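hi got a favour to ask and not much time before my train. below you get a single protein, a line of residues and a line of whole numbers that encode the local backbone shape. could you go over both lines and see whether the tokens make sense for that sequence. a few lines back from you is plenty, here it is:
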Amino acid sequence: MPHLFLCLYLLALLARPIIRMGIKIKLGNKFKSNNNRKMGAEQVANMKFKPIKKVRAIIYDIKDGKPYFLILRRVLNWRGWEFLKETMEPGETTLQTIKRGIKEETKLKKFKILKKFNYRENWRAMGRDFSIVCLYVVRADMRQKISLKQDITEHNKYAWVDKKTALRKLTWPKTRKFFRELKFDYSKNYPKHLK
């Protein structure tokens, strides 16, 4: 039964951009665009779609004068460790996206967004292009309760880890490279109060 829900979720995920472009999906191998022109499955597969835009957050806290970073263990579509990232919805700003993503994916209530970095990371998966369009550094209290429960489970574990451990655990080389080279003084930019 869980496989059925996963299949339905993936179908909905892949269909959402198609529907946003004004293409109505019909059962069978025929599709219809808004101008009622019939298109075969091959034509739809060869269409150029805009990349799915995502925003990433490096969430951290300070303990004993040392920064600890929140990493999440992904189980949906691939397995490995990553920083939180969220898909942008139509009409949303990157700031709105990351605030929504933090609340939805971790249930953190108190956090402070400290800095935005113009950062790009592109990849292709499941026949689609994806793009991280920016990254936010966010401070949160690691003593807060975190819940990863969602309708569809994306992550099944989380950990607060030091930078060395994060660099070892993060799955993707581009993410590790950017994190290693990121110029941000976590102790200096540490606000005493959270929202």
About this structure: The domain at 52-181 is CATH 3.90.79.10 (Nucleoside Triphosphate Pyrophosphohydrolase). The CA atoms of residues 68 and 162 lie 5 Å apart. Helices lie at 2-20, 41-45, 94-106, 163-169, 173-181.
